[in-house]
Structures are given as C-alpha cells and as structure tokens.
Design goal:
- The relative contact order is 0.23.
- The longest helix has 13 residues.
- The protein has one domain.
- It is built from five helices and ten strands; from the N terminus they run ββααββααββββαββ.
- By secondary structure, the chain is of the alpha+beta class.
- A hairpin with a 4-residue loop joins β5 and β6.
Length: 188
C-alpha cells in the first residue's frame, strides 16, 4: 500500500471554468439539478465548486463519487454537516501520514472541509491554505490508512478521475465506467 502519494494526473493546472465545460461535455449535467438552498454555509467554499454544484446540483458521478454543497436539503450531501462529521472522526485518529501532509500547509485535521465522498466511505477534503481556488484536496481512504494529495479544483479532480487522467489508488478498478453519468440519487 502506498500511503500519502500525490495522485497521478495528466492535466494539472487546468482552469476551473474550462474543466467544468469539459466535464459537462463528458458527463452531461441533469436537466433539473438538485441545487442547495441559496445562502452561504458555515465553511468557505471555492467559487469553482459553487459553479460545479450550480451546474450539477449535489449528487453522484457514475454511482460512486458524490459531490456535496452548502445548504443541501439532504444532510448527507451538505458540506457543513459532512465537515463536522469528518472533523470529529479524524480528530483523535492516529493518522501520522495525513497529519504530516497537513503540516506542510500549516493545518491539522480540524481545519479540513469535506466537499465529497464515495460509496466506499472515502472522503474528499479541502486543505484550506491560501486562496480558495488553490486549495489542495486530501482524498482519504475509508479506514484512514491511505490518502492522496490532489492539487486541483474539485471540478478538475472529478474530470481527471472520470477521464482517467488521475488515478486514486484506493478507488475501485471498475470506476469510472466507460460512459460516466451523473444522478441526483442513482439508487431510485
């Protein structure tokens, strides 16, 4: 198992709006997105993520990768609720690799903001250091034994994972499928 690796990516440094257009071309957004209620949550969110949620709403890419939004009607997809839960889980965990990675940004587990997750229980958390559009994501495996640092916007990460430009070692080999789709609730 490789712990704390930087995920391989072929499209580092893309512009968020270009990434969003590419993502929509690859995986069309729903005709009626499940957009969260207007208003800001307790945690800061990069503008590019607001645009991602504006285009898609909250929901799931390819029946596996969930994106959250501030003020989501479903509390499981709300950034504030998810962040509070993730911080509580990581607070007392013995996760020296993750803590060391966060030290490089001057942060600890209590500073992370969760913007997504997977059906396997993996979490996608911003490390809010510097300007919001430059926040890296720490992808943490469900049992917190493995993680990856991804230095892209949430939109760029979703695009890279769906196109195969980025590979997160603890995501399943059969994800993504050949024709990724987005659903507000893929299980209904």
């Amino acid at each position: 198992m490789s712990t704390g690796v930087r995920a391989r990516t072929r499209s580092e440094g893309g512009r968020p709006i270009e990434d969003l257009h590419s993502l929509i071309a690859l995986c069309p957004s729903p005709p009626v997105p499940a957009r969260p209620a207007a208003g800001a949550g307790r945690y800061a969110v990069p503008e590019s993520h607001r645009e991602l949620v504006g285009a898609y709403g909250v929901g799931c890419f390819d029946e596996f990768l969930w994106i959250y939004g501030s003020g989501a009607h479903n509390p499981h997809l709300d950034i504030d609720t998810a962040t509070d839960g993730a911080r509580a889980v990581l607070h007392d965990k013995r996760i020296p690799g993750i803590r060391n990675a966060l030290k490089a940004y001057g942060l600890g587990p209590g500073d992370l903001v969760q913007w997504g997750g997977t059906d396997n229980g993996d979490t996608l958390l911003w490390a809010p250091a510097g300007p919001p559009e430059a926040w890296p994501t720490i992808a943490v495996a469900a049992r917190q034994f493995d993680f990856a640092v991804l230095e892209r916007s949430s939109t760029g990460i979703v695009l890279d994972v769906l196109t195969g430009a980025a590979r997160i070692g603890f995501f399943p080999d059969d994800f993504p499928g050949s024709h990724p789709q987005f659903a507000v609730n893929p299980y209904t």
